[in-house]
């Protein structure tokens, strides 16, 4: 079984919106078995496949992107759960939209928006 090292760090961005970032560490065994060039990132996770340095790709099954780093690790970032008060509501994003447009949307009553 292939070992996928996946580290997730949760951080607070703004207004109760939680986002996540993670890293898929370079796996030289997996790279060799798929004959990946030394200057390319690679992972089978969510169909990321092969990426060049700095190249970004949206993950196939979530609202997140992977970016190929100089050390050939893959940096991941995505949106997660959000919290709002009673004056606002959370609308689901469309998983088919590009990141970050696929994330949840927060909609508040006009009176709340005028206070910001």
UniProtKB/TrEMBL annotation:
InterPro entries: SVWC_dom (IPR029277), Vago-like (IPR053308). GO terms for cellular component: extracellular region. Keywords: Secreted, Signal. It comes from the Eukaryota. It is found in: Secreted. Its main location: secreted. The keyword Ion transport does not apply. Residues 48-108 form the Single domain. Residues 1-19 form the signal peptide. This is Uncharacterized protein LOC115885440. The gene is LOC115885440.
């Amino acid at each position: 079984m292939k070992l996928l090292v996946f580290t997730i760090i949760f951080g607070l961005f703004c207004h109760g919106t939680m986002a996540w970032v993670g890293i898929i560490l370079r796996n030289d065994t997996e790279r060799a078995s798929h004959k990946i060039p030394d200057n390319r990132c690679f992972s089978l996770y969510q169909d990321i496949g092969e990426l060049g340095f700095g190249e970004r790709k949206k993950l196939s099954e979530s609202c997140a992107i992977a970016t190929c780093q100089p050390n050939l690790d893959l940096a991941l970032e995505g949106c997660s759960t959000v919290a709002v008060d009673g004056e606002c509501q959370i609308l689901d994003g469309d998983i088919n939209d590009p990141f970050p447009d696929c994330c949840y949307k927060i909609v508040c009553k006009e009176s709340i928006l005028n206070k910001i």
